[in-house]
Prior knowledge:
- It is built from 7 helices and 5 strands.
- By secondary structure, the protein is of the alpha/beta class.
Amino acid sequence: MVIIVRGACSVGKTTVARELVERLPGSAHVGCDTMLPWMADATLAALQKQGKEAFPELLNAWVAATSRIFAEQGIRLVVDWHFPADEELQDLLQRLDDCQVFNLLCAPEEHLRRDRQRATEEQIGPDGVEYFRTQGSWVGSPHGTDVDTTAMSPSEVATAILGHLGETR
């Protein structure tokens, strides 16, 4: 099984994903941010010259292949990434056999507070919070379960997700 933790930048995806892995035996965390360093500009440029929207397609292929490798070893994968467009997420879901999606939501004021807690170079600021709040398709997405994290700690969010999965850890 693959668990996708999805939402805006600074909403707490990575923290929640790590909490889930700590509480789910036989699981591993893959943050899609880890993919970025090995994606050479030349690879993206070549795909774009072919008229392909390079990043979503490459990311989805990478997540699907990684999940198969982990599944062969009996390891459950917990993935965190924005997946801002439902169409891109739908493409990924078609590539995966068993997947649960959780859309992390947060009120703008709390979102901005969490962003300020990040390292300065990772902060997206008020404009970034507003951009993600208005541009992402997390709210009301037909894919997955919405989890309003506004008044919850990462541990509480993980508990809510585990409850939805039928896990009690």
